[in-house]
Amino acid sequence: MKFATKAIHAGIEPDPSTGAIMTPIYQTSTYVQESPGRHKGYEYARSSNPTRTALQNALAALENGKYGICYASGLAATDAVLKLFLPGDEIIAPSDIYGGTYRLMKRIFEPLGLVFKFVDIDEIGGLAALITTKTRLVWLETPTNPLLKIIDIKHITGICKERNVLTCVDNTFASPYLQNPLDLGADIVMHSVTKYLGGHSDTVMGALVTSNGELANRLKFIQNASGAVPGPQDCFLVLRGLKTLHLRMQRHCENAAQIAMWLSAHSKVGKVYYPGLPHHPGHELAGKQMRGFGGVVSFELKDDSYEKTVRTMENLRIFALGESLGGVESLCTHPASMSHGGMPREERLKIGLKDTLIRLSVGVEDVEDLVADLDQAIGSD
Ligand SMILES: *Cc1c(COP(=O)(O)O)cnc(C)c1O
Fold first, then answer.
1. Domain with CATH 3.40.640.10 in the chain
2. pLDDT at 380
3. Is residue 339 within 6 Å of ligand 1 at its C-beta?
4. Which of 19, 36, 107, 264 is deepest in the core (most CB within 10 A)?
């Protein structure tokens, strides 16, 4: 099956009791048993719920994997991956991963004894030198936030396979419509379902997909044992969102490409970061590894002042100022004070993140209106 057909049909069966074409919201905490241990496959809703089962199967299909496991948030999914390891185990990750992932590793799991090595993303290719006999996992995220750097997934998973090290890729920014890390050799794919998969800014959820049965069993065990499960209503909303994932992603990509080109030609705009632009350092790699360049665009103003940046963001009317990305509506964020506010300024500058950087999550509105909004916001002083 091709992608759009899978997005609409995979994992979904008409409801066995009524034939309902949409998977019902099984809003129940428990299931009645005929006699102790004799039941229809469901016992207690933390362990499993039919609405969640349908969603997990759909997500597995979209990532070309065998097993999908959903969690209460993206970070709960990452938390489950990190719980696979024991004190002394080493994990390698790029230094500019999603801030919440870094905080979880540094503040929760490092004190519990896991050993993290953070590498400069531009030197991630040299990661083989960091692998020791204690290395268990390499964590990747590509494209990165907010500078949209691209990591060669196949190259890294190749090195890791030779050394018996697992790889997990945070595929949130690309979505399975644009990139399938399992096909490139990754062991686990992680998603903040909150973003493009849900797509409507109304749900917080996370997911893992793998084709490795043993890993899936351990991750399912953690899902039930730690209990960070999503509720059935949220699973329903994401099942609904998935049905238009391909249509939304097509428009996100088209709109973002047009905006990136328009910004590049604007006299008041400095650097524009978008993997679809030919001068972007990851352009060629993104062209090979992804099926499109995504919906996130970052840019700097030529007027290098914090005040002008803030005023530009305040002037925007259609782009709403807020954290998150991947919804149908356009959003803008100021990474230096929002997502990366916790990072010391020196370190931010070291990774190339200026105080004047603006990140756009380009929505699926009419692109002419989005361009006009940016034009009036950048143009006015
Ligand atoms: C939002 C996000 C997360 C965290 O997901 P939550 O659903 O907010 O817990 C992880 N990685 C990336 C790239 C994200 O954008």
1. 3-242
2. 55
3. no
4. 264
Class of domain 245-379 as given by CATH: alpha beta
Report whether CATH 3.90.226.10 matches the domain 3-242.
Answer: no
Q: What is the dihedral of CA 199, 362, 156, 185, to 10 degrees?
A: 40
Q: Give me ligand 1 centre to Cα 192, in Å.
A: 5
According to DSSP, the β-strands at 166-170 and 135-141 are parallel
The residues annotated as belonging to the active site are: 46, 98, 170, 195
Going by alpha carbons, the residue nearest to atom 1 of ligand 1 is: 192
pLDDT of residue 181: 98
3-state DSSP helix/strand/coil % of the chain, to nearest 5 = 40, 15, 45
**Ligand 1 center to 25 CA (angstroms):** 25
206 lines ligand 1 (CB under 6 A): yes
Name 318's Cβ contacts closer than 8 Å, sequence gap at least 6. Answer: 330, 365, 369, 370, 373
Strand partners, 138: 92, 167
3-state secondary structure of 214: helix
Distance from Cα 293 to the centre of ligand 1, integer Å: 19
| 120 — pLDDT class (breaks 50, 70, 90) | confident
pLDDT tens digits, 239-284: 999 999 999 999 999 999 999 999 999 999 999 999 999 999 999 9
Radius of gyration of the chain (CA): 21
179 touches ligand 1 (CB under 6 Å): no
Range list for CATH 3.90.1150.10 in the chain: 245-379
Cα-to-centroid distance, 107 and ligand 1 (Å): 17
Nearest CA to ligand 1 atom 9: 74
β partners of residue 273: 298
